[in-house]
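Thread title: Can someone regenerate the structure for this chain?

I was given the following input by a collaborator and told the matching structure tokens would be attached. They weren't. Posting the sequence so someone can regenerate them.
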Amino acid sequence: MTAMTSRRWRNVVALSGGVGGARFLHGLSRVLEPESLTAIVNTGDDLEHWGLSVSPDLDTVMYTLAGIANPKAGWGIVGETWEFMAQIERLGGPAWFRLGDRDLATHVLRTERLAEGETLSAVTAGLCRSLGVAAALLPMSDDLVRTMIRSDGGELPFQDYFVRLACAVPVRGIRFEGAKTARINPALAALGERPDLGAIIICPSNPYLSVDPILAVPGMREWLRAQGRPIVAVSPIVGGAAIKGPAAKIMAELGAAVSAVGIARHYRGLIDGLVIDEADAGLANEIVAEGIRVRVSRSVMSSTEDRVALARVCLAFAGEIADGRCR
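Best answer:
Regenerated them for you:
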């Protein structure tokens, strides 16, 4: 850890979805003291399945920071077994949304504790303590918000679109059910009062499916801007394609430019800087023309070293913006 990093970045807030965000957060947790990291995590993907409360993005981040995530898939638990799912299929149950045997324990305990009156934040904190995760994982809200996908055949719950249909249908619109009445996570009020909050980073998660649900919670955008800290995003689009998931497909279907410029325009008015991959260096001037500072760096995370390097780039970039050294 550099002297600048240890001095300035005592607390960093990051907005995250699932796999891509979790991998970046893992890098941040290696650069920062882990307890100095707070992740505001998307819960628009959450669902009730077989009577269980499932929070896919929270669990992906938690498993990744705990060091037990399946490194190949990016989600689930390494070395997972599937006896439960095999029996579900044998009994004629729906098998399109798969829960592993050890993963199942997380959902059982979450469901039980929510039924006992605990908030999702409290349940998540307890699970993180059990798994040795020092970073603070905050659901964007303790209230129910559900991402709904509008396609040609009508509206679909997110997991039906994402898992059951494998994103095969076109996206015509996205709605966040419950967002208008949801309340911002109460822990953010105390966090905003801390003088050592250094930077806010939007992870390389899907802007439409992972970050927009967070921003749709009333007061979230205002809270982010009110901190007076640099807000830096990492583009999840590299060379006109998504690193992972359907971001590029959705952007094309919604008429957005499928490029780092399209990401800049999507976040315009919120972010101060955007980190783009070396493959997109030629787009830097277009992004600057949108009023957003640019940092060009390798952003594809193929290893732990890549995650750490990208985290350092983002923190250094935010530091330059804070110091007025970045135009």
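DSSP finds 14 helices and 14 strands in the chain.
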